[in-house]
Amino acid sequence: MSLEPVHIRAIADLASRIDADFETPEESEVDDILPLLQELKHESKIILKALGRVFTGKVNIEQISSCKDPAQKTFACDSGSSNPRNFESGVTVDFCHCALACTPSDLDIHTKRTIVAVIYSPSWRCCVNTDENWNLFDNGNGRSRLVRINPGLLQTREKRMVHNVALYLAESEHMLWLKEIPAKNDFFIMDGPLYPKQLMYWMVVPSGEVQIRYDPHAKQILQNYIDIVDHFMKEQIPIIGFVKNPGDKQVVQTLRKQEIDMDIPWMEDAQLFKSILRPSEKESRNCITFTNWFMHPHQFYESILDTTTPLMDESLHHAFGVEDYALTFFVVFVPSMNVLFKIEAPYGLTKDDNMRSLITKKVLYDISINGLPMSLSKADSLGKIRKTERAQILKQFRKLGPDTTYNDLRWSDMNES
Q1: I need a surface site. Which of 19, 65, 155, 360 has the fewest CB within 10 A?
Q2: 407-416 pLDDT, tens per residue?
Q3: Alpha helices, H only, 126-265
Q4: Whole-angstrom distance, CA of residue 107 vs CA of residue 152
Q5: How many CB atoms lie within 10 A of CB 380?
């Protein structure tokens, strides 16, 4: 035991001083912020605007869970990773395995899998037989592919970029492969954001060390996500990105720049929305609270489609007007869990009042039943690569010695199984 009772008491004393001295925002102060979100600007640029009026809503968990499911079938896509691994030869590798889940369950859909392995080496002498086409396995129920990021494109963040390409390529290709399965009255959930934000950031930020914008697979990923959104907008089938751990800061940073006599103590948007949506101490916690829908206009979700953008040598193909690809969202707070979720969808769907209402009701219903949408939990279980399976994958590299660090030895036994 590293902490004796005397150490715990000393830590507890420091914690109690922090807790006692810190003042949380008054409820009236939080209420004053909400009207500012109707149209939030910075230097004439609109950062956030409401679709319709700004409001907060609340539903009772027992009441909404007893309602009929708004969707006939619910699909969810998720993937697991072997975790990017460095080898002593300078090679970085990651495997991502993607699955589609369905509620009610459909075993034929659950057996469909997409596996992508991505490799990066700074040396041109490293020869790897990559795949231009998909390799089929399991009687055609599975597809696998090995791709390589060209040498010289990554001077740093190679593990992160290898993981992003593997993750987003596996997920986008799997969704495109099975996109015809969801029908008119169905509902589709992507685990995480609607667009591949981390990859998109590094494709637009000027950097001599991370030049992933020149990788053809990264460009293909962007086209894949546009094709996915195009399909669902054409068919008018709801598709959302269910963000379980939103880390955005744009709203609070913009509020802090406003000429207003108001303290903005939050570091992240999720903290602000929690304060807005948290029920008072007198109210029941057996509820779900939520906001109206908002839009982030004129972000890089639309600019990637502009033929004048420096991001692309050639413009991405898209079936709708640029504004339809703008990111819209609403947030949901579950007091009993003290967690907040962000629900994203393209403006091409949510500009319709009925579609916004349908998506809102469906998300609230799913959360009331299971805490998370049941299909999303299934997809997570199907796609996950567990610790023992990661170890089996690592054993296949007989010639490449893992670049093990002390922390790998120290923490490996504490990883989830």
Answers
A1: 19
A2: 777 666 445 5
A3: 158-177, 197-204, 216-235, 250-256
A4: 43
A5: 18
